[in-house]
Hints:
The structure holds two protein chains of two kinds.
Chain A: E1 3-8, H1 12-15, H2 20-27, E2 35-39, H3 45-58, E3 62-67, H4 70-83, E4 91-95, H5 97-101, H6 107-125, E5 134-137, E6 142-145, H7 149-160, E7 165-168, E8 183-184, E9 189-190, H8 191-204, E10 211-214, E11 217-225, E12 228-235, H9 250-254, E13 258-260, E14 269-271, E15 273-274, E16 286-287, H10 302-306, E17 321-327, E18 329-332, E19 336-338, E20 355-357, H11 358-365, E21 385-392, H12 407-421, E22 426-431, H13 442-450, E23 454-458, E24 466-469, E25 475-479, E26 482-486, E27 488-493, E28 495-497, H14 501-508, E29 535-537, H15 547-564, E30 570-573, E31 578-580, H16 590-594, E32 600-603, E33 608-611, H17 621-625, E34 631-633, H18 638-649
Parallel strand pairs in A: 1-2, 1-3, 3-4, 6-7, 6-18, 7-10, 18-29, 20-27, 21-22, 21-27, 22-23
Antiparallel strand pairs in A: 5-30, 8-9, 11-12, 12-17, 13-14, 15-16, 19-28, 24-25, 25-26, 31-34, 32-33
Chain B: E1 6-11, H1 17-23, H2 28-35, E2 37-40, H3 49-53, E3 60-66, E4 69-71, H4 72-84, E5 85-91, H5 93-97, H6 99-102, H7 109-117, E6 133-137, E7 140-144, E8 147-152, E9 162-164, H8 171-183, H9 200-203, H10 249-252, H11 270-281, H12 292-303, H13 309-313
Parallel strand pairs in B: 1-2, 1-3, 3-5, 5-9
Antiparallel strand pairs in B: 4-8, 6-7
Amino acid sequence: MKIGIYFCNCGSNIAEKISSAAVAAAASSFPDSPYVKIVDFICSEEGKLQFEESLKSEQPDRVVVAACSPRDHEATFRRCLTNVGMNPYLIQMVNIREQIAWVTEDPAVATEKTIAAIRGAVCRVRLQQPLEKKQLEVCPDALVIGAGPAGMKAALSLAEAGRAVVLVERTPFIGGLPVRFEDLFPAMECAPCMLEPLMGDLLHGDHVGKIELMTMAELIEVTGFYGNFIAKIRRKPRHVALHECIGCGECVEACPATTRNEFNSNASERKAIDFAFTGVLPNAPFLMEEICIRSKGVECRACKDACPMGEDVVTLDEVETTVERRIGSIILATGAGLYDASRVVGMGMGTLPDVYDALQFERMLSSTGPTGGEIVTSDGTAPSSVAIIHCVGSLDEDHKPYCSGICCQYAFKFNHLITAKLPEVSITHYHRDLVVPGKEAHALLQHAAGNKNSSLKRYGSIKDLAVTHGSNGRLQVSATGDTSTADMVILCPAVIPAEGADRLSSLLDVSCDSFGFFQELHGRLDAAQSTLKGVYLAGACQEPMDIRSAMLEGMASVGHTLAGLQPGRMIEIEPATAEVDETRCAGCRLCVSVCPYHAITFDSERNASHINAVLCRGCGTCVTACPSGAIAGHHFTNEQIMAEIEGVLK
Amino acid sequence: MSEKPKLAVYWGASCGGCEIAVVNLHEKILDVDAALDFMFCPCLLDTKKKDIEALPDRAIAVTLFNGALRTEENVEMAHLLRSKSQILVAFGSCAKGGCIPALANFTTKEDLLRSVYVDNPSVDNPASIIPSGTTTFPEGNMSLTPLLERVKHLAQEVEVDYYIPGCPPESHQIWNVITAILSGDLPPKGSTVGCGTLTVCDDCSRTKEEKRITAFRRNYEFYPDPEACLLEQGLLCMGIATRNGCGAPCTKANMPCTGCYGAPEGISDQGAKMVAALGSVMDIGDTAGLSEDEIAGRVDAFLKTIPDYAGLFYKYTLASSILGGRVGRN
């Protein structure tokens, strides 16, 4: 076998420490007595030309390049091999610059190390085999998880660009949290009205053919990589055909079973088959199996019989299904939730009547909510005084150390809406730092500050506050040196990631920060990219965020998808993957659980594991783990590694 | 009788279990006797060393040599039997990889002898006499073969033709090998015979699923499910990294494999392979938000549930392992 060693001086970087003449002399004792060529800058245009000319005239079977880190120029030299018709995997690089010349004081020692390292590479390269790259066309389509403002914006924009979008939403409706609000800060726009055009476009617009909306669905498995993900999505049965249902509600009337409605913060009742809330989109009810009396063994088909649209709209025996979709990128827009205010001691959440968190109060304000928008206490009367407590769990080392960013603004929105409905109500804001950034938010603060019935009281620590039973069935709010009564207390809890974000994080192998929000690739430079290539972040799943920012983030993630995944673009599949020798696999299945890319499946019939070469990234984890030595890592076989070690140690 | 090929079974540092495995051929031992002249076996027959020395070289057709090489006498007999035998078989795990005697390679010869003859609480030895080589007593001289610095397996001293793994080898596999020898249908020299080419998992009929082990457990702690993979239940079953051919009698009896058939074909170090495999499936739980120290603490706590690494991972192969133990090779 003819082996060529190309020694790069890298100017003086390498030459000043390592004697190329000594290396050339030593090479004659290496296996197959390789020839040695000294080049000044092998990565330069001239150097590459020289390299290629030499390869053409010498016609070596294997090549060793002793130069810089393979992270710098392995791809460069592989291309040179390809250019002269050699297989690019027949080269081995030795990093004699970073790992030897730059870190070794004594030139004699550096030269000795270099000889050992190159000898190792020669021993290894003799065993390297030609490998062929495979090509795969990228999938330009996207999966969007979460149909709140950010997810809807992303899905619609991608569809407008001609991309197919799978939009997966866990709840039975679209619009996220704000669609359940009455008015929005800072401009007091009606929330459902503001979102309606977007939701309408999504459901019935020009690009609806490009959007596959799956409500009551969850992502359960993802394999593959940027440009070629395979997503498994579990669809819970809605029992109502979305496209056939006209939303008349006849089935709701007929249904005999009731429960609390979680989408009204459990403040109202609903039927087993019912709409999530009034005015919901898609405008169709869904059946809660666990509430339906059929789950108790009672034969009932009242809803089905009541449907004026025929037999096929309500399907009582619909079952959960799992579907698979190929997509090129994934946009996480799973949104936020509220910190459980009952964990903040002394706020009375869950123990005192008329203490509400912000979401419960939003529903009370909403004309589609449990009270039809009326502000009433638990005894059915209008309150004469309301306390709004900011920073419940935010800016608090015992709970969430960060500022939730949106609470002050919606608290002053509450002030505005309460005053509009009940002008005589006195409102007290208990706040710590007031955060109202930007050019618009100040208006609501000024409105509250100018409200003659309002007062702003600053507290130092939430521990100084206590909400307790007061006299006459009213509530009492005690602060340092101040006690006042209130008929209603509204808490503004910290904004936290929506439930299930941790599950998605481990499923996708996307990092979360210590608060559970998805981590950005870089907080400023790449805030819309996750830590995993091809998975983008949009909206409040990455930090507390208002609607404006969420929409912008949605568009940013679309930008990444459109820029990166052009239809027709090919991705190269590295051939340095792992492969199972079935004749040596004893079927212990250990490899299946260690693969971080879900590339390994077990074939029970053949009693052997199988590695999907497209999904395998060649990390070698299974090769190490396989206790029977049945898995070989191409380009990193045990024989190659052992030969290299033995060559170095000789 | 004399024209029958000669069979010898010899023991080095061993427990006698390999001889029992031979006898466990039951009535087939008569077939062995019919086909071969079973002429040397200190455990069962009265042939002496001088009888062997008197034989011409290569007079013995097959020697099944069990036991490790612990003493100079073991080495001497290994050389003697090598020169007198046409086929020398390293028989059983001691001869193949050192097995339990080789666990002594974690201790120097001096410390070992001190523990046995001086520091042992049940020994009364005020003069601290350590008998090794020739020792002088008031009653006269006593000679004991000296210990080697390090326990070796057979191939570290003489050329070995075949290896039969097992502690002891399963009798049905011994029969397979004897049949192969008699028929002359033998694989290339240096092969491991009397075994399979996969791992014990292939012999074990338990149901295997994906592996993710949340805690290591020991036999006394619970009754394992009789159908499920023992490793998946947290028992440190070496079956995944052990050559098959035994028929998995241990896992059938609800006991984890201890690895007596040694490393599978192509694996150079059974213990290292097992460590690599276990390291891949140890589940230390959700580490989100944990510091590196906390994660390291979890791993340590997990590993502390293994009381004896060497005895677990290298029970049968320390002499032949890459690590080799604490006592240097020379």
